[in-house]
């Protein structure tokens, strides 16, 4: 009896993932950060496959680790995005600093006048 209820729990979990992917993720515009960073399977795909191939408790443990890894991937992507924004805002940071320190000398080097 216990084994059949676990099988039912796995089936319900798999159907819940399918419902989440159909009704929740598309309207929200959400994309799995783990998949975006590592170009592999999304967390939904990973959990779905794990539920079909592993015992329920093993699948739950592996899924928790996957979600932790996805959280780390999210932080990495946010860090990369912040870095890219900073680079776009200041494409020539050294030149900017030099202008603040001595604008006449920098301008003369840019246009080729003087030393």
3D architecture notes:
α1 runs antiparallel to α3 (43-53), α3 (43-53) runs antiparallel to α4 (56-89) and α5 (93-101) crosses α6. The longest helix has 34 residues, at 56-89. The mean pLDDT is 77. By secondary structure, this protein is mainly α. It has helices spanning 2-28, 33-38, 43-53, 56-89, 93-101, 103-111. It has six helices and no strands. The protein has one domain (2-111).
Average pLDDT metric: 77
Radius of gyration, CA atoms, in whole angstroms:
25 Å
Q: Helix fraction?
A: over 70%
Order of helices and strands: HHHHHH
Into how many domains do the coordinates divide?
A: 1
Describe how the helices and strands are arranged.
Elements: H1 2-28, H2 33-38, H3 43-53, H4 56-89, H5 93-101, H6 103-111
Helix pairs in contact: 1-3, 3-4, 5-6
């Amino acid at each position: 009896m216990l084994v059949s209820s676990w099988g039912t729990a796995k089936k319900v979990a798999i159907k819940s993932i399918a419902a989440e992917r159909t009704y929740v993720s598309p309207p929200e515009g959400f994309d799995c950060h783990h998949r975006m960073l590592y170009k592999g399977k999304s967390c939904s795909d990973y959990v779905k496959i794990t539920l079909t191939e592993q015992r329920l408790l093993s699948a739950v443990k592996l899924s928790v680790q996957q979600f932790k890894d996805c959280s780390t991937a999210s932080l990495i992507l946010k860090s990369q995005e912040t870095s890219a924004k900073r680079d776009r805002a200041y494409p020539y940071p050294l030149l900017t600093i030099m202008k603040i320190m001595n604008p006449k000398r920098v301008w003369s080097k840019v246009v080729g006048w003087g030393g």
